[in-house]
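Re-run requested by the PI after the first attempt was lost when the workstation crashed. Everything re-entered from the original request form. Ligand of interest: FE2/S2 (inorganic) cluster.
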Amino acid sequence: MTRFTVNGQPVHYRMDPETPLLWALRDASNLTGTKYGCGTGHCGACTVHIDGNAVRSCQVSIAAIEGSFVTTIEALSRDRSHPVQQAWVAEQVPQCGYCQSGMIMAAAALLARKGNPTDAEIDSAITNICRCGTYPRIREAIRRAGR
Ligand code: FES
Protein backbone atom coordinates (compact mmCIF):
# COMPACT_ATOMS: atom_id res chain seq x y z
CA MET A 1 0.00 0.00 0.00
CA THR A 2 1.33 3.40 -0.95
CA ARG A 3 0.53 6.44 1.17
CA PHE A 4 0.89 10.09 0.34
CA THR A 5 -1.28 13.19 0.16
CA VAL A 6 -3.23 14.35 -2.87
CA ASN A 7 -4.76 17.82 -2.74
CA GLY A 8 -4.59 17.81 1.04
CA GLN A 9 -6.23 14.40 1.47
CA PRO A 10 -4.32 11.29 2.52
CA VAL A 11 -4.52 8.53 -0.09
CA HIS A 12 -3.81 4.82 0.26
CA TYR A 13 -3.68 3.34 -3.20
CA ARG A 14 -4.01 -0.43 -3.35
CA MET A 15 -2.32 -0.69 -6.71
CA ASP A 16 0.91 -2.07 -8.13
CA PRO A 17 3.56 0.17 -6.53
CA GLU A 18 5.09 0.72 -9.95
CA THR A 19 1.86 2.31 -11.24
CA PRO A 20 2.62 5.77 -12.64
CA LEU A 21 1.14 8.53 -10.50
CA LEU A 22 -0.77 9.77 -13.57
CA TRP A 23 -2.90 6.64 -13.63
CA ALA A 24 -3.45 6.54 -9.88
CA LEU A 25 -4.72 10.12 -10.03
CA ARG A 26 -6.97 9.53 -13.03
CA ASP A 27 -8.23 6.01 -12.37
CA ALA A 28 -8.29 5.74 -8.57
CA SER A 29 -8.89 9.36 -7.55
CA ASN A 30 -10.92 10.46 -10.61
CA LEU A 31 -8.73 13.55 -10.96
CA THR A 32 -8.97 13.72 -14.73
CA GLY A 33 -7.65 17.26 -15.09
CA THR A 34 -4.20 15.67 -15.27
CA LYS A 35 -3.89 14.53 -18.89
CA TYR A 36 -2.20 11.68 -20.70
CA GLY A 37 -0.35 12.80 -23.78
CA CYS A 38 2.75 10.74 -24.55
CA GLY A 39 3.44 8.61 -21.50
CA THR A 40 7.17 9.06 -22.09
CA GLY A 41 7.93 12.26 -20.20
CA HIS A 42 8.10 14.51 -23.23
CA CYS A 43 4.82 16.42 -23.59
CA GLY A 44 4.14 17.60 -20.04
CA ALA A 45 0.35 17.19 -20.27
CA CYS A 46 0.54 15.13 -17.07
CA THR A 47 2.37 17.79 -14.99
CA VAL A 48 1.44 17.98 -11.31
CA HIS A 49 3.22 19.39 -8.27
CA ILE A 50 5.05 17.05 -5.93
CA ASP A 51 6.23 18.89 -2.83
CA GLY A 52 5.84 22.10 -4.84
CA ASN A 53 7.90 21.04 -7.85
CA ALA A 54 6.48 20.54 -11.34
CA VAL A 55 6.77 16.83 -12.13
CA ARG A 56 5.61 14.73 -15.08
CA SER A 57 3.33 12.28 -13.35
CA CYS A 58 3.61 9.64 -16.08
CA GLN A 59 7.26 9.19 -15.11
CA VAL A 60 6.89 8.76 -11.34
CA SER A 61 5.73 5.55 -9.70
CA ILE A 62 3.45 5.82 -6.71
CA ALA A 63 6.06 3.88 -4.69
CA ALA A 64 8.62 6.62 -5.34
CA ILE A 65 6.61 9.37 -3.69
CA GLU A 66 5.67 7.77 -0.39
CA GLY A 67 5.03 10.56 2.11
CA SER A 68 4.96 13.34 -0.51
CA PHE A 69 2.42 16.09 -1.07
CA VAL A 70 0.84 16.01 -4.52
CA THR A 71 -1.21 18.88 -5.94
CA THR A 72 -3.21 18.60 -9.14
CA ILE A 73 -4.88 21.26 -11.27
CA GLU A 74 -8.14 20.63 -9.39
CA ALA A 75 -6.61 22.06 -6.20
CA LEU A 76 -4.13 24.60 -7.53
CA SER A 77 -6.25 27.21 -5.82
CA ARG A 78 -8.87 26.41 -3.22
CA ASP A 79 -11.14 29.43 -3.06
CA ARG A 80 -10.77 31.30 -6.34
CA SER A 81 -8.74 31.03 -9.51
CA HIS A 82 -4.99 30.98 -9.09
CA PRO A 83 -3.27 34.09 -10.58
CA VAL A 84 -1.88 31.89 -13.35
CA GLN A 85 -5.39 30.67 -14.21
CA GLN A 86 -6.65 34.27 -14.20
CA ALA A 87 -3.84 35.28 -16.56
CA TRP A 88 -4.65 32.30 -18.80
CA VAL A 89 -8.22 33.57 -19.10
CA ALA A 90 -7.17 37.19 -19.63
CA GLU A 91 -4.74 36.21 -22.42
CA GLN A 92 -7.18 33.66 -23.90
CA VAL A 93 -4.35 31.14 -24.01
CA PRO A 94 -6.00 27.80 -24.84
CA GLN A 95 -6.89 26.63 -28.30
CA CYS A 96 -7.87 22.95 -28.08
CA GLY A 97 -7.00 23.10 -24.37
CA TYR A 98 -5.74 19.56 -23.91
CA CYS A 99 -2.23 20.46 -22.72
CA GLN A 100 -3.23 23.50 -20.69
CA SER A 101 -3.63 22.01 -17.24
CA GLY A 102 -0.05 20.74 -17.45
CA MET A 103 1.11 24.11 -18.75
CA ILE A 104 -0.60 25.92 -15.89
CA MET A 105 0.94 23.61 -13.30
CA ALA A 106 4.39 24.12 -14.82
CA ALA A 107 3.87 27.90 -14.93
CA ALA A 108 2.62 28.03 -11.33
CA ALA A 109 5.69 26.12 -10.12
CA LEU A 110 7.99 28.46 -12.05
CA LEU A 111 6.34 31.59 -10.62
CA ALA A 112 6.42 30.19 -7.10
CA ARG A 113 10.20 30.05 -7.22
CA LYS A 114 10.90 32.95 -9.61
CA GLY A 115 8.52 35.90 -9.76
CA ASN A 116 8.68 37.98 -12.93
CA PRO A 117 10.81 35.54 -14.96
CA THR A 118 12.63 36.57 -18.12
CA ASP A 119 11.64 35.08 -21.48
CA ALA A 120 14.75 32.88 -21.31
CA GLU A 121 13.74 31.62 -17.87
CA ILE A 122 10.21 30.93 -19.09
CA ASP A 123 11.50 29.05 -22.13
CA SER A 124 13.90 26.99 -20.09
CA ALA A 125 11.34 26.13 -17.37
CA ILE A 126 8.31 25.46 -19.57
CA THR A 127 9.26 22.57 -21.82
CA ASN A 128 5.70 21.29 -22.18
CA ILE A 129 4.44 20.76 -25.71
CA CYS A 130 1.37 22.49 -27.17
CA ARG A 131 0.42 21.10 -30.55
CA CYS A 132 -1.77 24.15 -31.23
CA GLY A 133 1.32 26.36 -30.83
CA THR A 134 -0.07 28.69 -28.18
CA TYR A 135 3.44 29.45 -26.91
CA PRO A 136 3.33 33.25 -27.45
CA ARG A 137 0.13 33.51 -25.38
CA ILE A 138 1.53 31.16 -22.72
CA ARG A 139 4.57 33.41 -22.37
CA GLU A 140 2.39 36.51 -22.17
CA ALA A 141 0.15 34.92 -19.54
CA ILE A 142 3.16 33.95 -17.42
CA ARG A 143 4.48 37.52 -17.70
CA ARG A 144 1.07 38.86 -16.66
CA ALA A 145 0.78 36.47 -13.71
CA GLY A 146 4.29 37.36 -12.59
CA ARG A 147 3.65 41.11 -12.46
FE1 FES B 1 3.57 12.60 -19.20
FE2 FES B 1 3.50 13.30 -21.80
S1 FES B 1 2.00 12.19 -20.64
S2 FES B 1 4.98 13.83 -20.31
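Saved to the shared folder this time. The radius of gyration is 15 Å.
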